[in-house]
Amino acid sequence: MTAQAQETEHAVRDRHQLRTLAVAITTISAVLCAVAVTIVYAVPLNRLWFLHFPLGFYLLAQGLLIFAVVVTFWYVRVQERIDHTRSVNEEIV
Amino acid sequence: MTAQSRQRTPNPHLAAYYGIVAAAFVSLVILLAMAEQLGWSEGAIARFMILLPLALYLLMAGASRTLDVEDFFTSGRRVPQVYNAFVMAAITIGGTGFFAYTGAVFFLGFDALAIGLGWTCGLLLAAVLFVPYLRRAGAYTLPAFLGQRFRSRETRMAASALQVVPTALLLAAEIKIAAVVIAIFLPLSFWLAVLLVAIFVAATGILGGMRSLTWAGSAEFIAGAIGLAVPLIVASVLLTNLPAPQFTYGEMLGSLQGAETAAGMSPVEPGATAQALPQAMPTQAAKPFLQSFGAITESGFFTLFLCFALGTAALPSLLARSGVTSSVADQRRSTAWALALVALFVITAPSLAVFAKLLMFRDMALAPTDGLPAWLSTLSQWQLVQASDLNGDGTITAGELLIKRDGVALAVPILAKLPYVLTALMATAGLGIALAAAGSHLFTLGVSLADDIYGTLDRRPIALPRLMAAWAAMAACALAAAVFLFIAEVDVLRTAVTAFAFSAATFFPILLLALWWPRCTAWGALASLGTGFAVLFLAVTVGGLFGVAETAVGTTAASLVAAVLALGAGVGASLYGPAPAAFETAYYEAMRRPDGETLFDQAQTRAATAAARAAED
């Protein structure tokens, strides 16, 4: 492998790792922040009602879980695309 | 000559097989429901409902027996993503979740939601942070991965020794809850039930290792899902006219508040009860369901959530399944499916608790005019409920009704006056989930002791070849768990909290460093493992003298402190010591590649090729 090809491969690897890190931080922080905010505001939110449930209770019992499922499948899709891009770029190199 | 890598094609008939298993299970329920109408005794129905599925699981484990090392340790790395998700969900929830978590939601209502939320977010953390890279590494156990990552036998053995605590605690809790259910429904003493469960779990693991645990565990999960859904949907139709308990129990919350007030329940203050989480022994339900942060403060709620999230993400029994699917992408998707299944259970559990509480306290409010409800004698006979009119006013209030936390799920079909077969079905469901979880904990524990400690110490085993060592270790661990249950009083929920706390403190920091920080070294790994475990161990054992970690919330807070200290120790020791060797960096880079054969299998292939060349020469 030439030095230029090796350099390009390292650039592909670094870009992949950076994008992986970014999507991991986004996914985890979105869910953890949502949980933290809901816990902090659960009591005021419970004054509102949604589908016969107090809203704070609903979010902790169902809403955040549905959100976590949606975010996880979104993460899986995005990460697969990032991985695929790396594989294609490495083949080109 | 080069050694060929194995084909990773899953069995194309799996869906048909499991369709037949599910249909057989449903047919059994229908036949027993008909038999009940024909006058069969409750004992006979319970025996058929519990023993026939057990025989089926054992048959499936026997049919998937293997002597092949890769099949035994990783199920041939060809498990389809959804079937792996079934077993992962069963491990996360376990019999503890099925019986003790639903009971905790019954007693604490709002405040108990932290646990279920923690499990779900823990699987998210595992899917994002750990699972894909562990699949790429392909080690058979979590300690083996750490050993390969740092090329350190000491790290491997230390991790194996430290994973005994969380895994053995969960194993004991699962065996106990399964034995409690068996002792209620079969004419066996609790001790005989413990022995039966230990033998069953050991047999399932020994016959085919990860392979038999996967296929028997999938059937156990399917039985668990059907057994939870059917009684709950029937109860939902009876109470709300709609077959979707997760969404309809909101309509019952107003009635529940009325029933709670009539039973004399009033809002509680944090710290008013001796323990934040309800005890295993029969206890009065003191806290209104919807009261926010009554038994647990906001910070305690967040601590409990975070501890369960970190503990689930780093749970050795879950991560041991990271190498069983055919690719990194499959493993990631499999974890996402497991998360969806766990979320569905967690969404469902409050509906079960609300139905149980509403039916129980509504009937009790009618007792002065209608007499004591019929379910009281059945539940008292099973020692799930104790009622006594202490003040002699002719009514039984919430303070006079003592309810066993782990019996709430079993009580729902009886409270809703459903046919007995549905109570037995609920028991079989919980039993199936508990057995699937117990099998996986036993396998993780036994295989790690055999492969990571015995196998590392004795490089060329003379007395015990690899699989025989694993069999012996699993049998010994099952026996030890049974003996432990004979001599110790185990509260399954408290035990599970301690186990998840140890998992969070000991393994989360080192996995984060090993998988996301190339500068981490073997010294850093040892420092992180040792610090996390030692700090929490001290807090749990001698911390009680100073008021630390006395309660479940205290234990979870101590585990988070231990995890932060472990992270700091790992970073500090790695930076203070020599930089990682070139092979450690190369392993890290290779592990982060998303495609290709696992690193472990590549090494095996290289070794086989070298051996073949040597033989040719």
Short description:
Chain A is mainly alpha-helical and 93 residues long.
Task: Round the mean pLDDT of chain A to the nearest integer and report it.
Answer: 89
Strand order of the largest sheet of chain A: 1-2
- Helix proportion range of chain B: over 70%
What's the CATH architecture of chain B? Up-down Bundle
Binned strand content of chain B: under 5%
Q: How would you characterize the largest beta sheet of chain B?
A: 3 strands, antiparallel
How would you explain this protein's 3D organization?
The complex is a heterodimer of chains A (93) and B (617). Chain A is mainly α. Chain A has one domain (3-92). Chain A has helices at 3-40, 42-45, 55-92; strands at residues 49-50, 53-54. The longest helix of chain A is centred in the first third of the chain and has 38 residues, at 3-40. Chain A is elongated. The N and C termini of chain A lie close together (10 Å). Chain B is mainly α and 617 residues long. Chain B has one domain (14-485): Sodium/glucose cotransporter (Up-down Bundle). Chain B is 72% helix and 1% strand. Chain B contains 25 helices and three strands. Chain B has helices spanning 14-37, 42-63, 69-74, 81-108, 113-137, 142-150, 153-162, 164-185, 190-240, 245-248, 253-262, 298-313, 316-319, 328-365, 367-370, 375-381, 408-415, 420-457, 466-487, 492-506, 508-516, 522-541, 552-576, 582-591, 599-616; strands at residues 283-284, 385-387, 401-403. In chain B, α5 runs parallel beside α21 and α21 runs antiparallel to α22 (522-541). The A-B interface holds A 13, 16-17, 20-21, 24, 27-28, 31-32, 35-36, 39-40, 42-43, 46, 51-54, 56-58, 60-62, 64-66, 68-69, 71-73, 75-76, 79-80, 83, 86-87 and B 110, 113, 116-117, 120-121, 123-125, 127-129, 132, 246-247, 250-251, 253, 290, 292-293, 298, 301-302, 305, 328-329, 332-333, 335-336, 339-340, 343, 346-347, 350, 516, 589, 592-595.
